Amino acid sequence: MAESPQFAELRTRYVQSLPDKHAALANAWRAFAAAPDEQTAIELQALAHRLAGSAPAYGYEAIGEAAHVVDALLNAWTKRPAPEREDAATLAKQIAAPTLALVESLAHAIETSPKTA
Fold first, then answer.
1. Whose CA, among 16, 27, 51, 78, lies 20 to 30 Å from 44?
2. How many structural domains does the chain have?
3. Is 66 contained in some domain?
4. Which residue stretches of 1-117 are H helix?
5. Measured between alpha carbons, how far apart are the two ends of the chain, in Å?
């Protein structure tokens, strides 16, 4: 089934937004890794959450899956009462691999997506 012209336009805009999404996520990860705290965890989680929801809708299932992993880990951490959770530095170590995989997944999508005007 062919996609509608409206959806094609939305997909084009999404593809064009990938470099900004990549930069925002990479910057949020660097900020969290350098100075892990609850606020930077929340900011990183918000970005991952949005990608987990939007990426699959535009055909980027791998990004969505990677983002879901990061989102779930950060969400579980932020929802626990502070006295019951590991410190943010420990969390940063735990989420480093999946977060870097998400950043790389976005970079790959940018490289391989059709170029738009």
1. 16
2. 1
3. yes
4. 5-34, 38-54, 61-79, 88-112
5. 25
